Amino acid sequence: MKKIILFITLLLFGVTIFSQTIADIRINEFSPNYNGDLINPLGNKSPWIELYNTSLVSLNVGTMYLTDDRNDLKKYQLPKSDELKISANGFLIIYLDTSKHFHPTVASLSTETGYLALVLSDGRTIVDSVVYDPKLITDGTFLSRTIDGAGNWEITDISTPLLSNDIKIYESPNEIVKRLDPYGIGISIICFFIVIIILIMLYLAFYYIWKIKRPVVKTKRVEIKKEGEDFKTEIIHNEEEISSEVLAAIGTALHLYLLSMHDYENGIITIKKVTKPYSPWSSKLYNLTPTPQKINLPKKIIYEKNRPNN
């Protein structure tokens, strides 16, 4: 059973491969008036066409015909060359130059007729063609398919030689804003409304926070009511909201009270005694040589001591 399934798979794959022929080549992009940086093998800037291989195998477009005349499908035959080989889902550029040349990727065709066709080697079967108005294709504009090898033709200002036409051009946020709002009016209006909305939200937030966290003072009031000959005492508990004026007065009073707790002695200099750490090296008790002390003797003793002996 497995061999049968494998055989059928290989058979289907082989049929698919061999069913893909040179007729799967399509004209994918066309530049009738090109003046960009792309240079043909002859060293000139010239119009060009892009061929696309829609098959899954490599194909060589040699011996096929290109024509710009509906009545002459064999106007220019591509030579046999390996340079005309297109890989699977690959691209090939054919340049259009009416000057004399012998290069396989340069065809002697004109773009002023408004017609271009790719013909099989039999010279009768048209594989693909494009009809356009040469007056609408100015310098810097191109004809390209929206989908490689199958989409409709459209005029665009973006060329993708040897690349897929389905390329998304990246635009930075600044470029998008500049394209959508070149004068900045929309951005100004959006910023204005954003500021207004933020201010409204802040107002509502502070308003409801104040309502939730408002200062409330509990009061107690005693009322005496007379009922006939008896007096009835009633204690009434109440909660009153403190106004902003009262809060301001309380804050000012607290501030002044805290200021009055400080002593201000303007013009008074306070001299503090500087204490030095004790060290035996600076103490007079530990001097090596004691300081001589003066002894006061009576005058009589001094006289007897100094008198000469007879």
Can you offer a commentary on this structure?
- The chain is an alpha+beta fold and 310 residues long.
- The chain has 3 domains: 2-156, no CATH class; 170-213; 216-260, no CATH class.
- The protein has helices spanning 2-19, 173-180, 185-212, 244-260, 299-306; strands at 25-31, 48-53, 59-60, 65-67, 76-77, 85-86, 91-96, 106-107, 115-119, 126-131, 142-145, 153-156, 216-227, 230-241.
- A hairpin with an 8-residue loop joins strand 4 (65-67) and strand 5 (76-77).
- Mean pLDDT is 77; it is low at 13-19.
* N-to-C order of helices and strands: HEEEEEEEEEEEEHHEEHH
Going across the biggest sheet, name each strand in turn.
8-7-2-1-11-12
What number of domains?
3
- Unreliably modeled segments: 13-19
Report the C-alpha radius of gyration, rounded. 54 Å
Question: What's the helix count?
Answer: 5
The share of residues in helices is 25-40%
Q: Total strand count, please?
A: 14
Quote the average pLDDT: 77
Terminus-to-terminus distance: 164 Å
Strand content: 15-25%
Main sheet overview: 6 strands, mixed
Shape: elongated
Structural class determined from secondary elements = alpha+beta
